[in-house]
Design a protein that fits this description.
The chain is an alpha+beta fold. The chain has one domain. The chain is built from three helices and seven strands; from the N terminus they run H-H-E-E-E-E-E-H-E-E. Strand 5, helix 3 and strand 6 form a beta-alpha-beta unit. Helix 1 crosses helix 2. The radius of gyration is 15 Å and the shape is globular. 29% of the residues are buried.
């Protein structure tokens, strides 16, 4: 991945985080993940620089056989950044492992775990990198 591509990913992630902060300022902590997903999808979809998809299927292949097991990305921005949303006490190792697996399976390089169940959203954001 080139420095220019990394720079574009970083700028895009800044836009995403800014949108997440806007959602958190308006809704605060304490809601279900689905509420934050709907609000962040709306917030991102109003930005002309961003293309966002919601509940994107993740394909798993086992011994050449495609398995439909129902895994879905919460949000996918510009077909580049996976956003995994949480409304939990804290981000744990299993959340990091889940996001890294989604990155590997979908051949993406950057994931953002955003936990809205925090007082300050900056404390609930984790960047997950794969093959950069």
């Amino acid at each position: 991945m080139s420095k220019e591509q990394i720079s574009k990913l970083n700028k895009l992630s800044e836009l995403i985080i800014g949108s997440a902060i806007e959602v958190h300022k308006n809704l605060g902590p304490g809601l279900l993940e689905s509420a934050y997903e709907a609000a962040l999808f709306y917030e991102l979809s109003t930005n002309n620089e961003i293309s966002v998809q919601q509940q994107v299927p993740v394909n798993i292949t086992y011994k050449g056989q495609r398995l439909d097991v129902g895994y879905r990305l919460d949000l996918l921005v510009n077909d580049q950044i996976i956003i995994e949303l949480k409304a939990v006490e804290k981000i744990s190792d299993i959340h990091l492992a889940q996001t890294l697996t989604y990155l590997k399976l979908s051949n993406k390089h950057l994931g953002l775990i955003i936990n809205f169940n925090v007082r300050l959203l900056k404390d609930g954001i984790k960047r997950v990198l794969h093959n950069i």
